[in-house]
Specification:
The chain is of the alpha+beta class. Helix content is 42%, strand content 22%.
Length: 867
C-alpha cells in the first residue's frame, strides 16, 4: 500500500500508542509569487505522549525533509524518512519532535494551493486539507482522532493579508528582509489536523463583529471578517454575507445552547476550490463561485446561504465534536446538511429551503443510493482513498434526509436536547455512532438501536406506491406497498417510515389544494391505511406529503394522470416539487419514456414559480434529452424543447430569474443541437435584443460554448472574448469553448493536455474535459480504448483529486443504444466489464469511479430501451 493511503488499522494502532498535545508550525511563503519557486520552508514542532519504548510514524508529503529532531536527538534523515512517512523509534513518555522540510505548492486544490490571478497577476494562497492533506503543508500525525492545540506562524510579503484559525496576535518585520513580515496567531483549542488552515495573499478584507449576552450574563463577542481576491471586490456583497453570518450565529448559539467556541469567525472565498466550502474553525473557506460577478438567481443566493449555514453548523458538529475515523463522517456532514437547511428556513427570509432540499439535495442522494457502489450512512472506510470517495450524496443528503425522518420520529425538541448533551459530553473530543445514539436515546426516551440499524447501517432506497381499491369514487382498501433491495447485500430492507398522505382536490378557482393530511406509519411490505376507508377519492393522493421520509414515490394511475395534466395547478410548492420528483424518478428508472418527462417540462415549467425547482427541472430535461431519449427521436425532442425554451426566454418578464434560467437552458442544450444557434449569435453580437437580459460574462461564455461545439466560433473569436474577460472564470470558459470545437485535432490536443500533461490546474482541467466530451460520438469513439489503457497510470501519477476528475470526466458515457442491442451488451459496457474483470486488484477508489460510471451508462441505455 502506498504511504499516501493511510489505513484505518494503521490509524487505530497509532492512536493507541500516542496522544498529541500541541503543534507549533512555521510556514515561510514570502517567495510564493515567484513561479520558479516550487515550494516553501515548513517547520513543525509537536509535543505528544507515547508508550515508552514504542515506535510510530509521522506524515509529510513534501519536496524533501531537511532535519528531524526527536527529544533533543538529531535523527538521520536518510534512515527515518520512508517516502511520505517519518519513522520515530524509542519514544519516551513525553516527546517533542521537530521536523523541518520543504513543502510544495499545489495546483490541484490539495494542500497549499497557489493561484495567480489573470486579472492583475497577483498571487494568492490558501490551504485545503480534508480528508488528509495537511501533511502536504506541515509534518504531523494525520488522522482526526489525534487532536491537539495549534499555533501557526506565517512569513509572507508584508503587504499581504494573512489569516489562520486563531486571531492574529503579532505581526513583526523580518530581520534583513524588509519585503516580508511574520504573522503569529493565537493558539487554538484542541482540533483535528484536517481543519487547520492558512490564508495568504493580497486579499480584499471586510470586517465586522457579532455579540450576544449568554445565559450566565457574560458577553460573547465574535470578530468577523470576509476575504476575496482584490479583483472581485467590486462584486463582493459583504454586507449581505455579514447579515447572514450574524443571523446564523444567533440562531445556532441559541439552538445548541453552547456558545460559539472558536473566538473569531472569518470566511474566505477562494479560487479554484475543489469543494463548496470547508469548515475550518475560525476561518471557513468557500469557493469564490459564490461571489457573483455575473447575474445570479435568487436560488443561487439561497444555495450560498445554505452552504454558509452548513459550515457554521460544523463549528459544533464536526469541529467541537469530531468523528474518530471516517466511518462516521456522517456525524458531521449529515448533521451539517440538515442544519444548513434548517438555518436557512428558520434564520433567514427564504421560505423555500425545504422545498429546494427535496427537489435537489435529496435527488442527489437518490441517484447515489441506486448505484452498485452505494453504502450505508455509517460506512466502511478502510483507508483514506475510500474516505475521499465518501463525500457523496449518501453521507450528505441521505444522512440529512434520515435525520429529518428521525426528527419526525422522536420530535424536534428531543432531537435538539440530545444534541446539546452530546456537545457537553464530548466537547473538543472524538465520537462514534454509539455516543450520539446514547445522547438522543436519553433525550427522547427511545431505544434507537433498531432505528439506527435500519436507517444508518443498511443501504438502498425504498419505493412506495399506493394500491387503491375504490367503489364509486370512494376509497375502499388503500395499501401502501413498499419495495426495497439493499444493493450491497441483495436482501430486502423494508425500513419503517413515518409519513403523511396528502389529499388534493380542485378548489372553486381551479387550483389543486390539500383538503386533508393523514399521518401514517409504514412498516413491512404492505401497510393498510384504514383512515382512508370510506373517504371520497381525491384528484391526487400524494404519498410522503411534506417530504418527511427518504423514499421514492410511484404515483397511482389516477394521481399520475392528474399530475401530467394539471401539475401547474398544484398550489403548494412542496407538493409540486414532490410531483416533479416522482415524474423524474419514473423517467430515470425507465418506467415511463424520458420524452414524457421532457413534455411535462415543456408544458408546466413556464408556470413554475419556484426558481430553485425550475432550474432543477430544466437541468433534468436537458439530461433526459441527451442521455435517456432514444437516438432515433432525440433530435426532434431536443428541437421541440429548444423552441419552447427560446419562446419562454423571449416572453419572460424582463430581468427576471426565469428569464435567466431559460437563457441558460437554451445555451446549454444548444451545445448538442443547432436549431437556436442564430438566436444565440444574435444575442452575442447585439443584433437580437432580449429586453432585461443581462448578457454578462457567464452567459456570454455559455453562448460561445454552444457556437463552438458546432464549429460556428473560431479560435480567434474565442481569444478576443478572453481578451475582454481577463478573469479566472473567463479562462475556464475559454478552455471549455476551445476544447468543444468539433475538430479531430482539437480533441487530440485536449486529450493530451488532460491525460498526458500536468500543466492544467484543477479547474482548467475540468473545463477542458467538459469541452472535450462535448462532441458528436464519431469524434470520441477513438478514445474509448485509450481511456481504459490510461486509467492505472493516471491514478498512480496524479493526486487523487486530479485523477478522480480525469477518470470520472473522460469515461465514454455518452452512448446511444443501437437497434436490436440489449443495454447490457453495448460495446462500451462490455469493454468496461472486461477492464473491471482484468483489474480486480486496482485501487478500490479507482474501481469505484469506473463502476459508478458504468452504472450511469447502463441506466441511460435502459431508459433509451424504454422508448
Amino acid at each position: 500500500m502506498s504511504n499516501h493511503n493511510l489505513s484505518r488499522d494503521e490509524a487505530a494502532i497509532r492512536s493507541a500508542l500516542i496522544t498529541t498535545h500541541s503543534y507549533d508550525v512555521t510556514l515561510d511563503v514570502r517567495d510564493a509569487a515567484d513561479p520558479a519557486v516550487a515550494g516553501y520552508p515548513s517547520t513543525s514542532t509537536i509535543t505528544f505522549s507515547a508508550d515508552p519504548g514504542s515506535s510510530t510514524f509521522m506524515d509529510f508529503i513534501s519536496g524533501g525533509v531537511e532535519s528531524v529532531l526527536l527529544n533533543g536527538r538529531s535523527l538521520d534523515v536518510g534512515l527515518v524518512v520512508d517516502r511520505d512517512r517519518i519513522i520515530l523509534e524509542g519514544l519516551e513518555a513525553e516527546n517533542t519532535v521537530t521536523v523541518a522540510g520543504r513543502a510544495l505548492y499545489s495546483r490541484s486544490g490539495e494542500g497549499m494551493h497557489r493561484f495567480v490571478d489573470p486579472a492583475d497577476g497577483e498571487c494568492y494562497l490558501y490551504t485545503q486539507y480534508e480528508p488528509a492533506d495537511s501533511r502536504r503543508v506541515f509534518a504531523n500525525f494525520e488522522q482526526p482522532d489525534l487532536k491537539a492545540e495549534f499555533t501557526f506562524h506565517v512569513i509572507a510579503p508584508a503587504a499581504w493579508k494573512v489569516a489562520s484559525n486563531g486571531v492574529e496576535e503579532a505581526r513583526t518585520p523580518v530581520p534583513d528582509d524588509p519585503r516580508a513580515a511574520q504573522w503569529d496567531f493565537a493558539t487554538t483549542k484542541r482540533m483535528s489536523t484536517y481543519i487547520t488552515t492558512v490564508l495568504a495573499g493580497p486579499y480584499f478584507k471586510a470586517e465586522d463583529h457579532w455579540a450576544t449576552t449568554l445565559d450566565d450574563g457574560t458577553r460573547l463577542d465574535v470578530p468577523l471578517a470576509l476575504f476575496c481576491r482584490a479583483s472581485l471586490a467590486e462584486s463582493f456583497d459583504a454586507e449581505q454575507l455579514f447579515r447572514l453570518t450574524k443571523s446564523g450565529l444567533a440562531f445556532f448559539n441559541e439552538l445548541f445552547a453552547y456558545p460559539y467556541p472558536w473566538g473569531k469567525y472569518d470566511q474566505a472565498f477562494v479560487p479554484e476550490y475543489n469543494l463548496g466550502a470547508m469548515e475550518n474553525p475560525g476561518l471557513v473557506t468557500f469557493t469564490e463561485k459564490y461571489v457573483y460577478a455575473s447575474r445570479a438567481t435568487d436560488a443561487q443566493y439561497q444555495a450560498r446561504a445554505n452552504t454558509l449555514m452548513h459550515e457554521m453548523a460544523h463549528m459544533w458538529f464536526g469541529d467541537l465534536v469530531t468523528m474518530n475515523w471516517w466511518d462516521d463522517l456522517w456525524l458531521k456532514e449529515s448533521f451539517a446538511d440538515y442544519m444548513g437547511t434548517l438555518g436557512v428556513d428558520r434564520a433567514t427570509d427564504w421560505d423555500t429551503a425545504w422545498v429546494n432540499f427535496a427537489s435537489k439535495r435529496k435527488a442527489w442522494a437518490y441517484v447515489q443510493d441506486q448505484l452498485p457502489t452505494t453504502h450505508p450512512i455509517v460506512a466502511d472506510i478502510p483507508d483514506l482513498e475510500a474516505a475521499k470517495q465518501n463525500f457523496d450524496g449518501i453521507t450528505y443528503a441521505k444522512g440529512a434526509s434520515v435525520l429529518k425522518q428521525l426528527v419526525a420520529y422522536v420530535g424536534f425538541d428531543a432531537f435538539i436536547k440530545g444534541s446539546r448533551q452530546y456537545f457537553r459530553d464530548h466537547e473538543f473530543g472524538n465520537t462514534s455512532l454509539q455516543d450520539l445514539l446514547q445522547a438522543l436515546g436519553v433525550a427522547s426516551g427511545r431505544d434507537l438501536a433498531d432505528w439506527a440499524r435500519q436507517w444508518l447501517q443498511t443501504s438502498g432506497i425504498s419505493t412506495i406506491a399506493a394500491e387503491i381499491v375504490e367503489d364509486g369514487g370512494v376509497f375502499g382498501a388503500v395499501t401502501l406497498q413498499q419495495e426495497a433491495i439493499d444493493p450491497l447485500t441483495g436482501h430486502q430492507e423494508l425500513r419503517p417510515h413515518r409519513m403523511r398522505l396528502g389529499l388534493y382536490d380542485a378548489d372553486p378557482a381551479g387550483a389543486l389544494v390539500r383538503t386533508e393530511n393523514i399521518e401514517v406509519d409504514v412498516a413491512g411490505p404492505s401497510t393498510l391505511v384504514s383512515a382512508l376507508n370510506g373517504k371520497r377519492r381525491p384528484a391526487l393522493l400524494l404519498v410522503n406529503d411534506d417530504d418527511l421520509s427518504y423514499v421514492k414515490v410511484r404515483l397511482d394511475p389516477e394521481s399520475e394522470h392528474t399530475v401530467r395534466t394539471s401539475l401547474d395547478k398544484i398550489s403548494d410548492p412542496m407538493a409540486r416539487a414532490l410531483c416533479w420528483t416522482a415524474l423524474w424518478d419514473s423517467a430515470r428508472d425507465g418506467v415511463t419514456p424520458a420524452a414524457r418527462y421532457v413534455s411535462a417540462v415543456e408544458q408546466f415549467a413556464p408556470a413554475e414559480a419556484g426558481i430553485g425547482v425550475l432550474l432543477n427541472v430544466l437541468g433534468n430535461a436537458a439530461s433526459a434529452i441527451e442521455r435517456y431519449v432514444p437516438s432515433a427521436t432525440r433530435e426532434g425532442v431536443r428541437k421541440d424543447f429548444l423552441a419552447v425554451a427560446a419562446e419562454q426566454l423571449m416572453s419572460a418578464d424582463p430581468g427576471s430569474d426565469p428569464q435567466l434560467a431559460w437563457a441558460r437552458t437554451v445555451a446549454d442544450v444548444s451545445r448538442h443541437g443547432d436549431s437556436q444557434l442564430t438566436l444565440l449569435r444574435g444575442i452575442l453580437d447585439g443584433s437580437t435584443v432580449v429586453e432585461g437580459l443581462a448578457v454578462d460574462a457567464e452567459l456570454r461564455w455559455s453562448l460561445w460554448q454552444a457556437l463552438a461545439a458546432h464549429g460556428q466560433a473560431t479560435l480567434a473569436e474565442l481569444d478576443r472574448e478572453l481578451g475582454a474577460d481577463t478573469t479566472a472564470s473567463g479562462r475556464e470558459g475559454h478552455a471549455l469553448a476551445s476544447a468543444a470545437r468539433p475538430d479531430a485535432s482539437v480533441k487530440a490536443a485536449a486529450w493530451d493536455s488532460a491525460v498526458n500533461s500536468t500543466g492544467l490546474s484543477n479547474e482548467i482541467l475540468s473545463a477542458t474535459i467538459a469541452g472535450f466530451v462535448t462532441a458528436p460520438g464519431d469524434l470520441l469513439e477513438r478514445y474509448v480504448e485509450p481511456y481504459f489503457e490510461c486509467l492505472e497510470r493516471v491514478w498512480t501519477e496524479r493526486s487523487i483529486e486530479i485523477a478522480g476528475r480525469i477518470v470520472r470526466g473522460l469515461f465514454p458515457g455518452a452512448q446511444d443504444l443501437p437497434e436490436g442491442v440489449r443495454p447490457a451488451d453495448h460495446a462500451v459496457l462490455v469493454r468496461t466489464d472486461h477492464w473491471l474483470r482484468d483489474h480486480q486488484n486496482a485501487p478500490r477508489a479507482l474501481r469505484r469511479i469506473v463502476i459508478e460510471q458504468r452504472s450511469h451508462l447502463l441506466r441511460a441505455l435502459t431508459a433509451q430501451a424504454a422508448g
